[in-house]
Design brief:
It is found in: Cell membrane. This protein has about 675 residues and is an alpha/beta fold. It contains 24 helices and 24 strands. The longest helix has 18 residues. The two termini are about 50 Å apart.
Length: about 675
């Protein structure tokens, strides 16, 4: 295959208020025609900056190419004028962004923006021809009723549909190189599988090359021909996907692979996590940039930076490849991944064998949460978004109850109703046998000490003008009566408990990494030693290694503080690992509950089976076709009759449309709402 993209010695710097900051250094790799390359690494490693440099989008962000070349099909992109770049973008190369709303103008329709892109790069086409082409592209990327979607605005499309529309716009001029920057990170596992399958099909159909940026090595294993690993602005390893997964040649790559949570991950052991965090580009360590976190680091690593060298037909930047290959390190796997206390395994076994209402901390009885809309003085029809509909289950003391389902399934709404942040439309929520709706305001405020929440976005859930000490200490001000000295001592103890320095007390949230901010959020949640903590997508936005650190921390705190947890997530492997039992929601309904292992090994509901089948497998030797659920979750304002999953279910019958299935026991401790369960 001929070389399409060749990057050699690329260095990029940005002008900041504190001076010039070099963000990537001496980056080199190439992409052949028809090849898929994955750039992987933690946030802050330079992946997105590298991809934007190829498109020269860094010019709009005070960035500039300090050194190196970017050759695209023989054209030096680094030396082109802005006028020449405009003709190259779209026709030769195009980009799909992580956040599709950022790629579309909210004041123009989807159709108008795709048509404009086509006409800008092909002046021979008429507006009518461009419109037909846009409709054809929307249909090709799997958007139903493309003529209708052409007239809609970006905010009227779901996340998955908007991502498809962005891919259609990127493909409108048939580029030779498609750059996809974390295109599935914010999407559910089912929609992710649809998008990845679509990219693979389009790659063959349009004879494209793909540069995919991701921090999910499971995706890289499924889709990449070769993988380029970046760390702190540099390439540290390059290899074919099969070679890299079979035997990494850099300790950082090895750490990333060991951090992956898999179906086979032993729930009685801690997850492996790379110690520490990625360094700030403004304060890089000497020598090898990875050496402060590396179990193989030597004096040479501290003094001298390794260069990227060819080894066995692949590349690695490490002084100690031989030690890595022989398994000699200063920290053995056993010491890095010690067993969780035996009590944890005993607790899980006890929880899985107990009856459905044994020792319940929370009990939900026929809980419904509807949001009325579109009421009119002239219409008697009552319309409502059925976010949660007739849900009943219990959460036992000491267990972790997982909750999974696509966006729009009602998971987060159910969590808010559980904590009584929102009152249920009907039904009751009992906490330690007390109906929360029957409590007075003062009594409910008192009970709230015992139930806390960890949010998905730790930065968005705190006041950025407050210091960390005030953020974590606020619960003491609301529910306690501590002196300033007692409060500081309590907060410093909490900081140490979640793995942060007591010196963090006087710093601000923006001074911390994403994982550190989540630790601050956890410290705040456990400040009053609650009985129950709800973690709502608490690790979904984190890198794989940071995710492992936070999961391990939650497991430790669960044991130390005798916590009961509810863990909401769409990363199914992580939910499986942390949970004793798991509930599956679809369009406001609870469709299945089972012990964690049983649910994943033997799902009873066809929706659960589809979720499990959609999970990427981080093993290129087991690469398979994506098992894709067709379509998207229907609107909760207009749910289908009968079984709500029937419109997407491959096993649906006439009975499924006419009759709503009952939630019944299909095995020991295993419940499902399906007329014809899988098991």
């Amino acid at each position: 295959m001929s070389q399409l993209l060749d990057i050699e010695g690329l260095s990029v710097e940005f002008a900041t208020s504190r001076g010039v900051l070099q963000v990537i250094s001496d980056v080199s790799f190439s992409i052949k025609a028809g090849e898929t390359i994955c750039l992987v690494g933690e946030s802050g490693s330079g992946k997105t900056v590298t991809s934007k440099a190829v498109m020269r989008l860094i010019d709009d962000e005070n960035g500039s190419i300090r050194a190196g070349t970017i050759m695209l099909d023989g054209i030096d992109v680094a030396g082109l004028s802005q006028h020449a770049l405009r003709s190259l973008r779209g026709k030769k190369m195009a980009m799909v962004f992580q956040e599709p709303m950022a790629a579309f103008d909210p004041v123009f329709t989807i159709g108008k923006q795709i048509i404009e892109t086509i006409l800008r790069h092909d002046r021979k086409k008429t507006s009518n021809q461009a419109r037909h082409r846009a409709v054809e592209l929307l249909r090709r990327v799997g958007i139903p009723e493309p003529e209708l979607r052409m007239k809609q605005y970006p905010n009227e499309l779901s996340g998955g549909m908007l991502q498809r529309a962005m891919i259609a716009m990127a493909l409108s001029c048939e580029p030779e190189l498609l750059i996809a920057d974390e295109p599935t990170t914010a999407l559910d596992v089912t929609i992710q599988a649809q998008i990845l399958q679509l990219l693979q099909e389009l790659k063959v159909e349009f004879n494209m090359s793909i540069l995919l940026i991701t921090h999910d090595l499971g995706i890289a294993a499924e889709i990449a021909d070769r993988i380029v690993v970046m760390y702190a602005g540099q390439v540290v390893e390059q290899a074919s996907t099969a070679e890299l997964f079979a035997q990494p040649y850099h300790p950082y790559t090895q750490g990333l692979l060991q951090s992956i949570t898999m179906m086979e991950s032993d729930r009685s052991k801690r997850l492996y996590a790379i110690p520490g965090s990625i360094p700030s580009l403004a304060d890089l360590p000497s020598g090898c940039r990875f050496h402060p976190r590396c179990p193989y680091a030597s004096e040479q690593c501290v003094r001298e930076a390794p260069v990227l060298q060819d080894r066995d037909g692949r590349q690695s930047a490490c002084w100690n490849v031989e030690r890595l290959l022989s398994g000699e390190s200063d920290a053995s796997a056993a010491s890095i991944t010690p067993h969780v206390e035996v009590a944890a395994a005993a607790l899980r076994a006890e929880a899985e064998s107990a009856g459905p209402d044994a020792d319940a901390l929370f009990e939900l009885r026929h809980v419904t949460k509807h949001y009325p809309y579109g009421r009119s003085l002239f219409s008697r029809e009552k319309k409502a978004v059925q976010a949660v509909d007739d849900v009943s289950f219990s959460i036992r003391k000491g267990e972790t109850f997982g909750l999974v389902g696509e966006s729009g399934s009602g998971k987060s709404t159910l969590g808010r109703v559980l904590l009584h942040i929102e009152r249920p439309t009907s039904g009751s929520v009992l906490f330690e046998g007390q109906d929360l709706a029957a409590l007075s305001r003062a009594r409910l405020r008192e009970e709230r000490k015992h139930m806390q929440m960890i949010f998905q976005d730790p930065y968005g859930s705190v006041d950025p003008r407050w210091k960390v000490g005030d953020i974590i200490g606020e619960p003491f001000a609301v529910h306690g009566n501590l002196s300033a000295r007692e409060k500081r001592e309590a907060v410093e103890e909490l900081l140490r408990l979640v793995g942060l320095s007591a010196a963090s007390y006087d710093r601000y949230p923006h001074e911390f990494s994403g994982g550190q901010r989540q630790r601050i959020g956890i410290a705040r949640a456990i400040a009053l030693r609650p009985k129950f903590v709800l973690a709502d997508e608490a690790v979904s936005a984190l890198d794989v290694s940071v995710q492992a650190q936070i999961v391990n921390l939650l497991q430790e705190l669960r044991q130390q503080l005798d916590l009961t947890l509810m863990f909401i997530g769409h990363g199914l492997n992580v939910v499986r690992y942390v949970s004793d039992r798991i509930g599956v929601m679809y369009l406001g309904k609870l469709v299945e509950i089972a012990p964690s292992e049983q649910l994943f090994r033997h799902p009873a509901h066809h929706y659960t089976k589809a979720l499990v089948s959609s999970m990427p497998v981080p093993d290129p030797q087991r690469r398979r076709e994506f098992a894709v659920i067709q379509g998207e979750i229907p609107s909760p304002a207009r749910p289908p009759s009968g079984c709500r999953f029937r419109t997407r279910c491959p096993a649906a019958t006439a009975r499924c449309a006419a009759e709503q299935p009952s939630f019944r026991e299909v095995g020991a401790g295993h419940y499902a709402a399906c007329h014809d369960p899988v098991i």
